[in-house]
Amino acid sequence: MFPKEASLKNVIVIKSVIRCFEMVFGLKVNFNKSKFGSIGLDGDHMERYENLLKCTLMNLPFTYLGLPIGVNPRRVESWKPIIARLKKNLSSWKSKVFSMVGRVCLLNFVLMSLPLFFLSFFRVPKSVGKQIISIQRQFLWGSKDGARGR
């Protein structure tokens, strides 16, 4: 993403900064694997910058550092990947035998780091918050499919 405005001058400056980085540190940036994008630019400018940088164009929505960028965080649909990832992480641990203290530690320190990371950026809708708490309770008390039990 361009930090300011995506002008030809800024694109050239960014490319030269990357080249300086390569020379100073002896590393090589793989532009074929790199992506760039800007919000509010027309397709002609983006294609020109894409050819200049030899990068692929990134469209909204996309994920940056695990965060969905370009989605509306107030919509429940935006939170579905987070809920799915939480359930996936929990399903791999459900077959393990943990004490109550072990399950609490796992929930607090390992599994809840994913939703907390998102919650530090976005306000969660109430229904999503209730769903996350429900998933936590089901894991903690050992219930399957919402049924009570151990």
| Percentage of β-strand residues | 5-15%
- Low-confidence region ranges: none
Classify the secondary structure makeup into a structural class: mainly alpha
Query: Count of DSSP helices?
Result: 6
The rounded Rg comes to 21 Å
Q: Which strands sit side by side, in order, in the main sheet? A: 1-2
Shape: elongated
Spell the H/E element sequence. Answer: HEHEEEHHHH
Largest sheet: 2 strands, parallel
How many domains make up the 3D coordinates? 2
Task: Looking at this protein, list some descriptive labels.
150 residues, mainly alpha, two-stranded parallel ribbon, two-stranded antiparallel ribbon, elongated, membrane, transmembrane helix, transmembrane
Give the structure's gist in a few sentences.
With 150 residues, the protein is mainly alpha-helical. It has six helices and four strands.
List the helices and strands and how they pair.
Layout (H helix, E strand, L loop, with lengths): L7 H18 L9 E2 L6 H11 L2 E2 L4 E3 L2 E3 L10 H15 L5 H12 L1 H7 L6 H16 L9
Parallel strand pairs: 1-2
Antiparallel strand pairs: 3-4
Helix pairs in contact: 3-6, 4-6
What does this structure look like?
With 150 residues, the protein is mainly alpha-helical. It folds into 2 domains: 8-59, no CATH class; 67-141, no CATH class. Helix content is 53%, strand content 7%. The chain has helices spanning 8-25, 43-53, 80-94, 100-111, 113-119, 126-141; strands at residues 35-36, 56-57, 62-64, 67-69. The strands form 2 sheets. The chain has a two-stranded parallel sheet. It has a two-stranded antiparallel sheet with strand order 3-4. The chain is elongated and about 60 Å long. The termini are far apart. This is Ribonuclease H protein At1g65750 family. The chain crosses the membrane at residues 100-122. It comes from Cajanus cajan. Keywords: Membrane, Transmembrane, Transmembrane helix.
